[in-house]
Design a protein that fits this description.
CATH superfamily of the largest domain: Reverse transcriptase/Diguanylate cyclase domain
Shape: flat
Strand order of the largest sheet: 11-13-14-12-17-18
Distance between the termini: 55 Å
Number of domains: 3
Radius of gyration: 28 Å
Bound molecules: guanosine-5'-triphosphate
Largest sheet: 6 strands, mixed
Helix content: 40-55%
CATH architecture of the largest domain: 2-Layer Sandwich
């Protein structure tokens, strides 16, 4: 990623270059006037250009025209801006403008660049029955490099959400034929939690209770139409920032910090409440509990770091073996559990036997050592018991596998 800074003040240019290089880790070129900016833009493709509005050879914002003319997203730095200039710059399609006031202004620029880089991978769905309104919102989002999808009503929005994975933000109008904004949010929240997707409501309805109603229905924020560019972008970026924060908290609570697989808490929270229904339906459900054999020796001989790397590799191999169908968690130090919905004892046993064999056949290449390791596994199929009871039976089977020589799978 390459960034262009067009700035005649050597102090400002140096500060910006330093901060961007340090915090974003990309190459920064500096142009001190329009002529050198033109030459650099000819030579390189830039992810974004941060440009001063007034340069010695371009006193009237010609640098903005130059940058936008080369299809490069443009952030404008300026000492001041009157309302007419502001309107003109926004119409031209700049990403944002920043006043050169203090160090927080430069921090804002760096944060904005980092946000733009993230936005490139962020999908946003816009649901609105007005084509004009959709286009307006799409343009604003595309200026900030989002991947934008559109739906002309609530039903189509649900269709898109069913077919496209990874949509992080839904922006929905209130008044739409068929499924309106409220109903759409309710339906979306049945499938997507607040950790998975953020929602912003829009409306030009003057009902002053709308904001609260949208938020009570599951939206994260609400915008009254018509809105100004700056407010739209602030709301979108705040909403996505809080989504990111909620997601991080969720990850800290539910994922194992070392291997990245689910943790014990997630495993029990997810499956304990499901067991009564699975029993009622007569569905097959098995669990496996596994433990790397003589793992203490790995730590004792090669050190804790190598032990950690083995656990990571073990979790990776197990994830690959299981595919999307089954759930894996690290439930203890070197102990992993697998939940296998739809598998009876026999099928669970053969799946685990395949995995045991693969561990035995392929040594772990960690740091400079090749470690031949094995795993013992206990399997149990759901009977008339709680998840605790089922896990205890799998644990007993694992204990038997250890006791009868290790490197084997035993079903209870
Ligand atoms: N490197 C590393 N080691 C861990 C971690 N958690 C637990 N352990 C180690 O795992 C080892 C478990 O050893 P034991 O329970 O005695 O069993 P074992 O050596 O695996 O032998 P068996 O299970 O009887 O085959 C201990 O040395 C723990 O310190 C971890 O997060 N990282």
């Amino acid at each position: 990623m390459r960034i262009l800074v067009v700035e005649d003040s050597s102090v400002v240019a140096r500060v910006l270059k330093h901060m961007i290089t340090l915090q974003i880790g990309c190459t920064v070129d500096v142009a001190v006037d329009l002529a050198s900016a033109r030459a650099l833009l000819r030579e390189h493709e830039y992810f974004v250009a941060v440009t001063d509005l007034n340069l010695p050879d371009a006193p009237n914002g010609e640098s903005v025209e130059l940058v936008l003319g080369s299809h490069t997203p443009c952030i404008v730095l300026t000492g001041s801006l009157d309302p007419a200039q502001r309107r003109r710059l926004l119409q031209m399609g700049i990403v944002d403008y920043v006043f050169k006031e203090n160090r927080f202004s430069y921090e804002y620029v760096v944060k904005l660049i980092a946000t733009l880089a993230r936005n490139r991978a962020t999908k946003v769905l816009v649901a609105d029955d007005s084509a004009l309104s959709r286009k307006f919102v799409r343009n604003l989002l595309e200026l900030h490099l989002f991947q934008v999808l559109e739906a002309e009503d609530g039903a189509r929005a649900l269709e898109v959400l069913g077919r496209e994975s990874g949509i992080r933000l839904l922006i929905t109008d209130y008044n739409m034929p068929g499924i309106d904004g409220f109903e759409l949010i309710l339906r979306v929240r049945e499938k997507f939690s607040r950790e998975e997707m953020a929602i912003i409501g829009l409306s030009n309805d003057t009902d002053e209770t709308l904001t609260a109603r949208f938020i009570k229905n599951g939206a994260n924020d609400f915008l009254q139409k018509p809105f100004v560019h700056e407010e739209f972008h602030c709301r979108v970026s705040n909403t996505l920032e809080s989504l990111e924060m909620v997601r991080k908290l969720w990850e800290q609570a539910n994922l194992d910090y070392l291997t990245g697989v689910y943790n014990r808490r997630f495993f029990f929270d997810k499956f304990a409440p499901q067991l009564p229904t699975l029993k009622e339906q007569g569905a097959s459900f098995s669990v496996a509990l596994m433990d790397v054999d003589f793992f203490k020796r790995v730590n004792d001989t090669h050190g804790h770091d190598v032990g950690d790397a083995v656990l990571k590799e073990f979790a990776k191999r197990l994830t690959e073996s299981l595919g999307q169908h089954f759930t894996l968690a690290r439930v203890g130090g070197e102990e992993f559990a697998v939940a296998m919905k739809g598998l009876d004892k026999g099928r669970a046993l053969s799946l685990m036997e395949g995995f045991r064999r693969r561990i035995e056949e392929t040594p772990f290449a960690v740091a400079t050592v090749d470690l031949a390791l094995t795993v013992s596994i206990g399997v149990a199929e759901l009977g008339d018991e709680s998840l605790d009871g089922l896990m205890k039976r799998a644990d007993l089977a694992l204990y038997q596998a250890k006791g009868s020589g290790r490197n084997r799978v035993i079903a209870s």
